[in-house]
Design a protein that fits this description.
Layout (H helix, E strand, L loop, with lengths): L1 E8 L2 E8 L2 E3 L2 E3 L16 E3 L2 E5 L4 E6 L6 E2 L4 E7 L2 E6 L4 E6 L6 E2 L4 E5 L1
Antiparallel strand pairs: 1-2, 3-4, 5-6, 6-13, 7-9, 7-12, 8-11, 9-10, 11-13
């Protein structure tokens, strides 16, 4: 379902279309639309010889780190929370494993694609 909104910024008026979508297992799709679904926001983990590297899906501010090195995590557990565009986005573990390294701290600003956690 697409809704049209008008947004006024200063003296300029913009028309914005917003489509309702659903997310299942990291895949975003329009529930009743025949148009292609937009790309998923979360980036896929990059498997590596030393474990699974979890990347920041977007630029943002790290507002909390919810795990420590050596912690056991399950797929879906929140690793950290990233704030982007005034919205908090939980970054979750894509796999079961043990946190091998954390490359960010609370208060850090990261770019999209930055490795934030490695899980072995």
């Amino acid at each position: 379902m697409i809704k049209v909104y008008k947004v006024k910024i200063g003296e300029k008026v913009y028309e914005v279309e917003v489509e309702s979508v659903t997310e299942v297992n990291g895949t975003i799709s329009a529930p009743t639309s025949s148009t292609p679904a937009p790309a998923a926001v979360a980036s896929a983990p990059a498997p590596a010889g030393n474990g699974t590297k979890v990347e920041a899906p977007m630029q943002g501010l790290v507002v909390s780190v919810d795990v420590t090195v050596g912690a056991n995590v399950k797929a879906g557990d929140t690793l950290l929370v990233l704030e982007a565009m005034k919205m908090e986005n939980p970054i979750v573990s894509p796999v079961n494993g043990v946190v091998q390294s954390i490359t960010v701290n609370k208060g850090d600003t990261v770019d999209g694609g930055t490795v934030v956690v490695t899980i072995a």
